[in-house]
Amino acid sequence: MKDIMLKIVGRQVTNDGTGPSDEQVMEFVTEGQLFERNGSTYLLYKETEMSGLEGCTTSLKVKGDTVRMKRYGEALPIDTVMEFQKGKRYEGYYETPYGAFEMEILTNSVDNRLHEGVLDIDYAISLKGLTEARSRLNITILNQ
Question: For 76, what's the count of Cα atoms within 13 Å in the CB-facing half-sphere?
Answer without folding.
Answer: 22
